[in-house]
Amino acid sequence: MELRARVNMMRCSHRLLCSLFLAAALFGVAAAATRRHDWDISYQFTSPDCVRKLAVTINGHTPGPTIRAVQGDTIVVNVKNSLLTENVAIHWHGIRQIGTPWADGTEGVTQCPILPGDTFAYTFVVDRPGTYMYHAHYGMQRSAGLNGMIVVEVAPGAAGDGEREPFRYDGEHTVLLNDWWHRSTYEQAAGLASVPMVWVGEPQSLLINGRGRFVNCSSSPATAASCNVTHPDCAPAVFAVVPGKTYRFRIASVTSLSALNFEIEGHEMTVVEADGHYVKPFVVKNLNIYSGETYSVLITADQDPNRNYWLASNVVSRKPATPTGTAVLAYYGGRRNSPRARPPTPPPAGPAWNDTAYRVRQSLATVAHPAHAVPPPPTSDRTILLLNTQNKIGGQIKWALNNVSFTLPHTPYLVAMKRGLLGAFDQRPPPETYAGAAAFDVYAVQGNPNATTSDAPYRLRFGSVVDVVLQNANMLAANSSETHPWHLHGHDFWVLGHGAGRFDPAVHPAAAYNLRDPIMKNTVAVHPFGWTAIRFRADNPGVWAFHCHIEAHFFMGMGIVFEEGVDRVGDLPPEIMGCGKTRGGH
Amino acid sequence: MELRARVNMMRCSHRLLCSLFLAAALFGVAAAATRRHDWDISYQFTSPDCVRKLAVTINGHTPGPTIRAVQGDTIVVNVKNSLLTENVAIHWHGIRQIGTPWADGTEGVTQCPILPGDTFAYTFVVDRPGTYMYHAHYGMQRSAGLNGMIVVEVAPGAAGDGEREPFRYDGEHTVLLNDWWHRSTYEQAAGLASVPMVWVGEPQSLLINGRGRFVNCSSSPATAASCNVTHPDCAPAVFAVVPGKTYRFRIASVTSLSALNFEIEGHEMTVVEADGHYVKPFVVKNLNIYSGETYSVLITADQDPNRNYWLASNVVSRKPATPTGTAVLAYYGGRRNSPRARPPTPPPAGPAWNDTAYRVRQSLATVAHPAHAVPPPPTSDRTILLLNTQNKIGGQIKWALNNVSFTLPHTPYLVAMKRGLLGAFDQRPPPETYAGAAAFDVYAVQGNPNATTSDAPYRLRFGSVVDVVLQNANMLAANSSETHPWHLHGHDFWVLGHGAGRFDPAVHPAAAYNLRDPIMKNTVAVHPFGWTAIRFRADNPGVWAFHCHIEAHFFMGMGIVFEEGVDRVGDLPPEIMGCGKTRGGH
Questions:
Q1: Residues A31 and A66 occupy one common structural domain
Q2: Residues B32, B63 within the same domain
Q3: Which of A309, A332, A365 is the last residue of a domain?
Q4: Which among B577, B542, B505 is positioned nearest to B97, based on CA atoms?
Q5: Could you please report the per-residue DSSP string of A111-123?
Q6: Are B574 and A584 a contacting pair at CB < 8 A?
Q7: Within-domain flag for B478
Q8: How far is B176 from chain A (nearest CA, A)?
Q9: What is the pLDDT of residue B335?
Q10: B583·A576 Cβ contact <8 A
Q11: What residues are paired with A499 via a beta bridge?
Q12: Residues B187 and B323 in one domain
């Protein structure tokens, strides 16, 4: 069914009609609605953690509104850029943009940025139910506050198609996790590009639904004048529950830097969804969640109803210098409880930040729900092995894949490739593996000399099956390796395996790949000193970024780009052009 | 000669050839050179007043390099935008852009902004000797550090044409005056647009050639961590002189807000040039200079050579909350003097900040040099009377002219008019005068209700003579009126007169206009509660902004736009397009 619709869509010449046709073909005309949103992007003074800071907002707010839709709906977001001198682009994270690759919102890849004063209409179909998010995908703008959640419900009429969800709940909450700095994203970015690098430091606060509390509010000289602990922006988020009921918490992390551990004090969580795919349920006390990931968990309000409980997010994987982010689980119906009362206990502190094994176990436990598993192709047509290293290039600290640090071109690939614009990007294929892959010591400090910067894309045969193995390694400093959450645009991939140390292509595929019930995701963690293998089918015509979702890491070159079937992409909307080699009359 | 060249140029079809032809026609082929500059615009951390702040820099520096050229030269500045998410546009303040109206650098008027990654070549002829400046002309970007000076020398072979300068000197210095805030321009702009308005406050420092000293450097909690009094960026500027010699000081003010008084301790200054025009010399102890103005003064190093002296800039016209900006006049050759020594006296404090009469006297004293006066046309074809008021529109505080607060369109006028793009701007003519002009009390708080915002331009008959009378008035608060330095792009104008109180068209032209030897300028002050009358010939095909040079005031609507002879403008370079209605394939 899906394939047929896609083929029809390829022959379609009018974009919006194609989208509608696709939606109609997949879900029946009656169910598909068009949901329109008008967003005005502007700077506003906000106080998410009680400290006043200029943020990039949607209709005056950060986070922006949650987009709610039903599977098969067409979403139209009219984005008006009311920033004064700054452009914008918004990525719909987890939405595959089948048939609408120009709506992916990735500046330099799928579109030119939206200029101040311009309005750009993002039109796309949400073809799968699940929990997703959106955020700016331009420079380090995501960190400035432009983010929010997308919730796609199962179509009411779809139950007969086997799309009924494999769990039940009485109520739902959305939880958007973030980290927050008092310094501007401009300062962060300029510091990262400086020689020597000026690091902004760990975040001042962790936010839950855009709310946190800077702990040194009045005692820090730097913020004394701009801090107001009674500001309504920083009142903690409150999640109401009724005793005995079961709730779905849809959780997304849009952090710039932090890997987080999320916990609801005293309440076990059953993990049921990851990145829009149903998980074989497993129970955790707390949930590790990396930037770009989403999960749904179920909890039952089965604790003492005469008090409230903390929601807590804690930094893991990096040595924490940021206090716990908190919100309140408020019991309604406890006779002696006020839903606004502060929980009487200290917030949960989370697991040991450096317990990598603990986090790897969660990664390995996350497999597909038996009734919803989509088996991967048994073999791949091509394997790309990507060594993730920290390098110095021209004095700057960079991240590189196989010694190539990625740079974005100024003409979007999608336009450059479709139109055959020469000189828009490096045409030489980037490396499929790294030198010395057979004996590389991922635990040692490596010189990684002769690293270069490049915007060369990986071009994939349309319809082919591609494996990518992400190999983590030691950083520039000894005994250091971080977690990198890699996010693929335009696809979900099967998570074939995670391992510690150096990946061995002669051993690990046979010994460690899960080809039976791997979960599909759009974002997956590569653990310290470890490797992660994924598989996907290159069947979505377009150009798609694949990168570490840590904002600073992508900014420093930790990403690549895939092209597949760009010749099958329909006529490009002129609105995505206007920069680089598509400037003015060119 | 000039007119003939211009007429030839109008028939010219190739832009660069036209410019070269114009230069050749005016000054002889031998004298005209092409001077190329490659500028990379980026954010850098700078410490102009010892406090670290992110600035927009040119090749890493703020201010940018002084452009030096000879009359008739062609200047080519290749501006590469290396900002991450922010566009840029640069105005060549005082250069009339005859035949190159698309190179004026005024975002929304003459070009679309330059996108990150793009390079835009500004090519123009400097047709007159004199002292000019350049600065960003986009949002409030000028305040972020993107500014510098332009010095155009008299062509060596031009002496016979009467262009020899009417004064002599032994050496020359350039002095660029500025004011400086620790808060970013984004915060300033967002605050101005807020309801209620959040005012950034008076500048923290005054800079001379980009150097100042924040007086509360280590004692201010907000800046303690980012302040370094030994940072080389904030070492005071030193101006070397040899005893007995005479020096030309070329002085420009690029302040965002402040009207300044400039003094060289113990040295009388002879004013000889204003905005590129020779002044009938007059001697001052100190010089009032408004944002957008340039002056040349001569001083003789005739004081005790065994000590140094202060250069000082002080705020006037607004109650000062910013300490004196200082630099050092260093005597070389005094036997007991070190050129690096601090002057032994306190820096000059300048005149009383609210002595308007003192400053008006300087305005009236500034008339054309007898040997270089260009007499104005005796009458005008049209008079536009512009009442400058502060208004509230939709809760926002705005500035308005005749109750119309100016907004910039997102399609540049030059492109929209040349191509006849409908809907790009308001076609209805804006008002030529204001309601109740015959009896308006400029000293009273006025309601000024029903003010509107508009981007409607004033369209002028090509070749006509236009008078504009700028009428100042009381602001929203009682007993308050500020000085507004109005700057006209694309022209010099004759300064016909200044007066106190309400301008009376039946009385003042006859009684107070100077038609004999008015100075020509591109920027002129409108004094508190007073009026200023100017005259110009609408003979430069293009679209030209005319606005208060206070960055916040233009941002809040204090400006208008003139169109003249746009049908005579040659083919527009495609590089100026790409925004608004010229976006993408449109």
A1: yes
A2: yes
A3: A365
A4: B542
A5: BPPBPTT-EEEEE
A6: yes
A7: yes
A8: 25
A9: 82
A10: no
A11: A531
A12: yes
Q: Locate A329 and state its tokens.
A: 């689980």
Query: Tokens for B166?
Result: 């009417």
Report the DSSP pairing between strands A559-564 and A542-548: antiparallel
Query: Confidence band (pLDDT; 50, 70, 90) for B158?
Result: low
| Number of folded domains that form chain A | 3
For residues A149 and A247, membership in a common domain is answered with no
Query: What letter represents residue A389's amino acid?
Result: T
State pLDDT tens for residues B193-213: 999 999 999 999 999 999 999
Share of chain A above pLDDT 70, in %: 93
Q: Alpha carbon A311 to chain centroid distance? A: 21
Residue that terminates a domain, selected from A101, A134, A161: A161
Residue numbers in B near A117 (CB within 8 A): 409-410, 579-580
Give the CA count within 13 Å in the CB-facing half-sphere of B188. Answer: 23
Work out the burial of residue B202: count CB atoms within 10 Å of its CB; fewer than 13 is exposed, 13-18 middle, 19 or more buried.
middle
Residue A192 in domain: yes
Task: Look at residue B374 and tell me if it is in a domain.
Answer: no
**Would the CB atoms of B410 and A44 count as touching at under 8 Å?**
no
CATH code of the domain in which A389 resides? 2.60.40.420
Domain membership of residue A77 as a residue range:
2-46+54-161
Name the token pair of A129: 């139910």
Residues A230 and A109 in one domain: no
- Nearest Cβ partner of A141 from B85, B221, B582? B85
Stretch among A465-479, B46-60, B438-452, B553-567 having the lowest mean pLDDT? B438-452
Percent composition of chain B: helix, strand, coil (DSSP 3-state, to 5): 15, 35, 50
Q: Does one domain contain both A361 and A399? A: no
Tell me the two tokens of residue A227.
């801090």
Collapsing DSSP to helix, strand or coil, B398 comes out as: strand
If you average pLDDT over every residue of chain B, what do you get?
Answer: 92
Helix, strand, coil % (nearest 5) of chain A? 15, 35, 50
Is the domain of B282 the same as that of B133? no
Q: Is residue B158 part of a domain?
A: yes
B452: closest CA of chain A, how far (Å): 19
> How far B139 CA sits from the closest chain A CA (Å)?
6
